[in-house]
Amino acid sequence: MIPAVKKIVFDIEATGLSPAQICQLSCLIIDEEISARNYFFTVDDMNPEAEAVHGFSMEELEELSGGVRFEDRADELFELFSTAKLFIGHNISADVRYIQQEFERLGMKLPKINTFCTMNYFTSQTNLKMKVNVGRPKPPKLIELCEFFDLSEEYIAERAREWFGDGGAAHDARFDTAATYLCLEAGTKKGLLRGVL
Fold it and tell me: Which residue, 15, 111, 135, 182, is most buried by CB atoms nearer than 10 A?
């Protein structure tokens, strides 16, 4: 039995726009210490546009996952995610929607878990201009938020490898999870937020 965890920073890569299958899930579990988990999943199909973003083909996912599908890890993941007190991510609502859909396909329903979105929270601080002036700043892409906090891709990749053993490129869920955590850490150190980490 996994003890109740406090917070999970996570990112997913998927086979396309929702509804779709999760092909990679990476998370940093923050309790008294930080632990990392990464999962690859065999999937039924792959949208070419999604593959162009994350770079994982169906054949590569079959190899990386060892043929394991989401449903093969569903009980373990449900126990982990349903005991969290807070989900943290960049555009977290989209990632939560994908997780919920995967569980719902299996007749499992996640309880309502509070979320913290780095994209929404830091929009006013980054104050990026939209292409069309609509009177409010543009929500930052994750890489733009990293630039705001002077986090280099090399440093993020190094930390991703430290936590996950690999994941040295953007749009690999390990890299994006590490980047999200490091933005939170940097924002906390700068006094821009409290009590999230």
Answer: 15
